[in-house]
Amino acid sequence: VLPPGISAERRELELLSFDGAPVDGLYFTTLSAYRDGRRRLTEEGIRTWESDVRLEDRFLMERFITGSARVIGSFLPDGKLRICDNPRISPSDWHPRLTTLSLDIETGQDGRLYSLAMDISGPDGESRYVAVLDEKAPAGGRQADTLQPAFLYYLPSELGLLRFLIETITESDPDIIIGWHVIGFDLSFLDGKSRELNLPLRIGRGHFPLRLVERPGSLPIAHLEGRLVIDGPVALRGAFHKFSDWRLDTVAYELLGRGKDIAAHGREKVAEIERRFREDKGALARYNLEDAVLVTEIFQRTGILEQLITRSLITGLPPDQVHRSVAAFDRFFLPRLHRKKYVAPNQSDIVSGKGAPGGMVFSRGAGLFEDVAVLDFKSLYPTVIRTFHIDPYSLIKASEHPLETPVDISFSRSEHILPAYLEELMEKRAAAKEAGDAPLSQAVKILMNSMYGVMGSSGCRFYRSELPTAITGIGRWVLNSSAERLKSWGYEVLYGDTDSLFVKLKTEERQDADNAGRILAKRVDEYFRDTIRSRFGVPSRLELEYEKRYLRLFLPVMRSGSGSGSEAAVKRYAGLLADGSVEIKGMEFVRSDSTALARDFQHELFRRYFAGEDLKVWIKDTVNRLKNGEFDDKLVYKRRLSRPAGEYKSPPPHVRAVKLLDPDGSRDLREVEYVITPSGPLPLELGPGEIDYNHYIEKQLRSLADDVLAQQGESFDSVIGGKQLDLFQPGNKS
User: Which tens digits make up the pLDDT trace of 494-522?
Assistant: First the structure.
């Protein structure tokens, strides 16, 4: 019985909840009545289903509209906009060609806006604009031709700069504003400045100004009518790009081969910006514009925007929200579930269960091995889902034509939704790879790989512990069965991790190792094809690929205290490829807290080790050169903070370094470069200082060297001459 006062029409529906109970639908005539009704039902303790789905999202998903839409109706002009009242909307396969505006600003230590630059790029061409504060400029400003082909203006006030920004964005009408920390810094500063000067920042396509929504412990969200704002670091991290650090200068050098116009960091950079503002405003304009141009070129070089658009067209989420994998799963699954006559619970009604076991990882022993084939199951979890018909609907319908699995969790052979969708995605990815469409291929891969994580998250309305348990359990069965079958064929399986197997090839196979690896993968595929068909009565969708061969593979001994003396570590190895390059996985080389010294040392260590060269003399010489100060430029740590420095209860070194620079937290620093001194971490901005060389020997070199030396019956101590190193020997730098 509904509480009194709820203004809605109640209708019987041919829909059931997951426990088989019939549900009714409530139909409201206004949004306010809907919101009030939802609130009152919650207060009265009356359970609802899918009442947390936004109405506009439901409208689109039930019509299978993802990304693009066809709008039919009568349009009326409203400035640059066209308004259509009550149109007919249907799916479309239109692929947009969007215009971007890369925005960058420069500010002074006194809080003034010094300059702003915009690099605009799209189907209609490119244009560049820079405006610099010059209080000596005439009231209407003045234009200079010293930055061609960019348009350069000198304006007498900050208010003039803001008006110039608004007018340029309105006139150029970009679809997307991009930048480097563009929300957390540029737009946040401009929003504050617009309030200070009482000039609403109307840079959207509608009538409302920019709105920044703060989120505790995270960056704000930028709302602009009719435009998106995409931040470079956030977008690139979401697409799994990796760089030495996330400074614009670093990323630009690694991708484009050039960096910012001012190479200095910290206080030196700030001082140079102040000098240019006082003495050489043209140079400041050049610096400002180059930052904006670098962001545009980084977006173009990585293809990140095209990938975001492609993911949007597949999932139906806006390009700046495609990382919301739970929402993407809702958009796909809910309308198809409704057509199966079922509704899903609210996310708040989900009760978290026990965690599912992770992927299987094993190692057969530490050492150096030759001619090792790496076999990889292609999209293991998606193919497990397809093979055993795993999805939430199949689980609740498991009593209808039950399909047993290797982990004794049953699903339905005939009633399922997700497997067919994954098959469609895999075909789409194969076609994209064949056509050389990298953005589409990567977008589909990210979406497919998110399915397991979504169903294993208690933040998903479809969470049931049986789903992730079945997926990872079957994955473990696949890996273990593969290893046992390979051993029965006379092969030594050295290492396995989730979806990969490292197999030592037989002596007679080394002449044509690549072909041997491909044959081996095919044999395992045939084994699963026969086994799954005979045991479970379904075709196997598993596909094992020969990925590569290591001429030599090093598996280190498990570190002291975590295993026996000969037991190999897991998720840590190094291999020599046929082209002479060295791959290092899971070791200090790729850790965020390593220095250039550690990375260079480890790479050269393995190059020498795989080449059979002497290590002891070289290691000792490296330590001596370190103590003599020859590697001082390689001792810098570069770290990011995940939250404000003041929120760390037991601050690690990089947080202590930030606190030295920003004691009261007013600068909200999230990145820092520092070295270790006898007194602790010292930010580069406060340097130079005395280096604690013993720290770098003990924390950066020792474990790397011991990993390899242990295989030769040696140790770092025996090579160097004892753990307590004398840093004050004659000739050493103090």
Answer: 999 999 999 999 999 999 999 999 999 99
Sequence-ordered alpha helix ranges (H) in 78-187? 158-172
Q: Could you read off the pLDDT of 106-151 as tens digits, one per residue?
A: 999 999 999 999 999 999 999 999 999 999 999 989 999 888 899 9
- DSSP class of residue 628 equals T
Give the DSSP letter string of 435-503. HT-HHHHHHHHHHHHHHHHHHT-TTSTT--THHHHHHHHHHHHHHHHHHHHHHHTT-EEEEEETTEEEE
- Mean pLDDT, the chain, whole residue set: 91
What amino acid is encoded at 353 in this protein? G
What integer pLDDT is reported at residue 564 of this predicted model?
Answer: 45
CATH homologous superfamily of 100-313 equals: Ribonuclease H-like superfamily/Ribonuclease H (3.30.420.10)
**Using CA atoms, how far apart are residues 479 and 501, in angstroms rounded to an integer?**
8
CA angle 307, 671, 245 (to 5 degrees): 45
Residue 666 has pLDDT above 60, yes or no: yes
Q: What distance in Å separates the CA atoms of residue 381 and residue 358, rounded to the nearest whole number?
A: 12
> Of the candidates 694, 705, 703, 700, which has an alpha carbon nearest to the alpha carbon of residue 729?
694
- In the numeric block, the tokens 């975001």 are attached to 308
Please classify residue 226 by burial: count the beta carbons closer than 10 Å to its beta carbon, then call 0-12 exposed, 13-18 middle and 19+ buried. Answer: exposed
What one-character-per-residue DSSP string does 507-556 give? GGGGGGHHHHHHHHHHHHHHHHHHHHHHHHSS-----EEEEEEEEEEEEP
For residue 559, what pLDDT band results from cuts at 50, 70 and 90?
A: low
Q: Where does 348-555 sit in CATH, by number?
A: 3.90.1600.10
| Cα distance from N-terminal residue to C-terminal residue, the chain | 82
Domain with CATH 3.90.1600.10 in the chain: 348-555
Q: Looking at the chain, which residues constitute the CATH 3.30.420.10 domain(s)?
A: 100-313
Strands (E), 330-458: 361-363, 367-377, 402-403, 411-412
Strands 125-133 and 176-179 come out as: unpaired
Q: How far is CA 535 from CA 236, 412, 523, in A?
A: 44, 16, 18
Helix (H, G, I), strand (E, B) or coil at 666: coil
CA distances from 476 to 83, 156, 350, 360, 406 (A): 55, 68, 27, 5, 10
pLDDT 10s digits, 424-476:
999 999 999 999 888 888 889 889 989 998 998 889 999 999 999 999 999 99
- Cα gap 74→363, rounded to integer Å: 67
